[in-house]
Structure formats: structure tokens, C-alpha cells
Amino acid sequence: MAKITYIEFNGTEHTVGVKPGMSVMEGAVRNNIPGIDADCGGACACATCHVYVEPDWQGAVGGRNDMEESMLDFAENVKDNSRLSCQIKVTEALDGLVVRMPESQH
Ligand code: FES
To answer: Which residues of 6-30 are buried (b: 16+ CB within 10 A; e: fewer)?
Structure first.
């Protein structure tokens, strides 16, 4: 299990264990963490699973893929550390990861 901390826009933190192989988005949805809508269910087709990766973790998480890059055009307030959480696969190396949710997914 990799421990992941999701921080809502209002500052509320949720730390949960997520099984390697699942996505960061699935980790949130399965644990009923608010702030990630994931309307398309992880197909990289909605941009409602937008998160900000804490700067310390950007290297371990890696960069965006091409499809993700184009979907992020539909998200609000995209920053350098923006990712679509359905495109981040959880591994043991991400144990301790911290992501923050945007104010809104729409
Ligand atoms: S869940 Fe739709 S793009 Fe990630």
C-alpha cells in the first residue's frame, strides 16, 4: 500500500492507503474523498480529476502524457504541477505522495 494524502481546496486532509496499480483518482473515489469528480471513470476524457502534485513529488510522479496535456486545456486554473489524477499510476515509490485538489472540477 502507498499512503497518499489528498488535500481539499478548503485545507481538509485525507490520508489513505492506495493499492499499487490503481490510479491516484481511483484511490480518492474508492475512499469517498470529495474534490475529484472523475466523470469519465478514468478514460482521460473529462479533466474532472485535476489535481496539483506537491512540488517535492513532481519528479517521482513524472510528466503529463500527450492526451492528458490536451484534456488539461478544459480544466480551470492549470498550473505547472497540474496532473489528471487518473493518469498517475500508484506504485510503492509514491508512498507519501501529497496532492491538492482545485477549487472546482468544472
Ligand atoms: S477521470 Fe476523466 S480525465 Fe481523469
So the answer is: bbbeeeeebebebeeebbbbbbbbe
**Would you state the cell numbers that stand for residue 52, as one nine-digit string?**
496539483
- Whether the CB of 28 sits within 6 Å of ligand 1: no
Nearest atom (ligand 1) to Cα of 47: 3
Residue 45 beta carbon below 6 angstroms from any ligand 1 atom = yes
Where would I find the H helices in the chain?
Answer: 24-30, 58-61, 66-71
- Is 25 close to ligand 1, i.e. is its CB under 6 Å away? yes
Length of the chain in terms of residues written: 106
pTM higher than 0.70, yes or no?
yes
Task: Say whether pLDDT at 3 is over 90.
Answer: yes
